[in-house]
Design brief:
Elements lengths: L14 H12 L4 H12 L6 E2 L2 E2 L1 E4 L2 H4 L3 H8 L1 E4 L3 H12 L1 H18 L7 H12 E6 L1 H9 L2 H7 L8 E4 L2 H6 L8 E8 L9 H11 L9 E4 L35
Parallel strand pairs: 3-4, 5-7
Antiparallel strand pairs: 1-2, 5-6, 7-8
Helix pairs in contact: 1-2, 2-5, 4-6, 5-6, 6-7, 6-11
């Protein structure tokens, strides 16, 4: 039986949908069936439209395994879904952020069509995979963005602690959400950021970033910062304790190249 704690702050964008999906699973639905039921309930009129048709979640099959995952989704509008926590969280992100997921999927598939499946993904697919698996989207005041880019952790979490009340952080990486099912201090997200006031305030940061990317085909896909997510004020009780941010194994005092965090 798959279980998932919905109480933590990072689950807030997914909490209500996840509760309904889990309830269906607890009475016998597969992950795919439970996600489809929620899809039908939330998007009853038009569904979530992909180029090939309305989105559906389908069990993994020989057909889906015989083709690159992203290419299969683009061709069939079907997301292969196993009965595990990883794929459940992937489905929840699809339901919450369909524009972002569609954009990532189509860019991945376009790269596959252009370059084929090789030993290496290439820079574009690497960046898209990082966002899809371990990404977070942040809208924040400029001062907070600047210190996060510099990895000035004391400034980000102590000096500018009050600025987090004006920030909007959404985790979109389903592998990141899966890691947080067993929280530990060292869990780190790769963050794409936009400054407060520069995007439609009616959109959450993930949707604002998806909207911007859809209109900017040359958009830089490199993450802007890394973020130890349990350091976010209000996200973990221990970060109120003296000395929490002095752990240099997590809050490294010297900035490192982002590429080093991908090793």
């Amino acid at each position: 039986m798959i279980s998932l704690d919905l109480a933590p702050a990072w689950m807030a964008p997914y909490r209500e949908t996840a509760a309904r999906v889990l309830a269906r699973m607890h009475v016998g639905d597969s992950v795919a069936a439970a996600l489809n039921a929620e899809l039908d309930a939330q998007f009853a009129v038009s569904g979530i439209g992909l180029a090939a048709g309305p989105l559906r979640f389908v069990p993994v099959s020989p057909a889906s395994q015989g083709e690159a995952y992203e290419s299969f989704i683009v061709r069939t509008a079907s997301v292969p879904t196993r009965d595990n926590l990883h794929d459940l969280l992937n489905g929840l992100v699809w339901l919450r952020h369909p524009a972002l997921k569609r954009w990532m999927n189509e860019r991945q598939a376009a790269e596959l069509a252009h370059r084929g499946v090789g030993a290496r993904r290439g820079a574009v697919r690497d960046a898209l995979t990082l966002l899809d698996e371990n990404g977070a989207c942040l809208r924040a005041p400029r001062a907070l963005i600047d210190v996060l880019i510099r990895r000035d952790w004391r400034a980000a979490f102590v000096t500018h602690r009050a600025a987090w009340r004006e920030a909007d952080l959404t985790l979109v990486g389903h592998a990141l959400l899966e890691k947080l099912a067993q929280p530990r201090k060292a869990i780190t997200a790769h963050v794409w950021m936009i400054e407060s006031g520069t995007s439609d305030v009616s959109l959450d940061p993930a949707d604002a970033i998806a909207q911007r990317a859809a209109f900017d085909k040359a958009a830089d896909l490199t993450p802007h910062a890394v973020l130890p997510v349990l350091g976010v004020p209000g996200w973990w009780p221990d970060n109120e304790l003296a000395g929490f941010y002095e752990d240099t194994a997590v809050f490294r005092p010297t900035p490192l190249a982002l590429g080093a965090d991908r090793q």
